[in-house]
Write a structure and sequence with these properties.
This protein is an alpha+beta fold. It has one domain (2-61): 3-Layer(aba) Sandwich (Glutaredoxin). It is 41% helix and 27% strand. Strands 2-1-3-4 form a 4-stranded mixed β-sheet.
């Protein structure tokens, strides 16, 4: 099973959209979603505060804006690896 890391924070609407899209894709691409709140780590906050949501799927990292097509491509790449 794939592990997907989502860098997020409370109140992030784009993050909620990515989570919803990943939930839809879970049937085709089973995964475990790990959410990391960037406000709990100063380094992560400095790195990602302007680019969340950030999604790591295997070796692929996506930054906002993240489309459904980009998620599918990243998931397919991770499954093929």
């Amino acid at each position: 099973m794939l592990t997907i890391t989502l860098y997020t924070k409370d109140g992030c609407g784009l993050c909620d959209e990515v989570k919803a899209e990943l939930a839809v894709l879970a049937a085709a691409y089973p995964h475990r979603l790990v959410e990391v709140d960037i406000t709990q780590d100063a380094d992560l906050f400095a790195r990602y505060r302007y680019t969340i949501p950030v999604v790591e799927i295997g070796a692929v990292t996506l930054q906002a804006p993240i489309t459904a097509v980009a998620l599918i491509d990243a998931l397919q790449t991770a499954v093929s690896s």
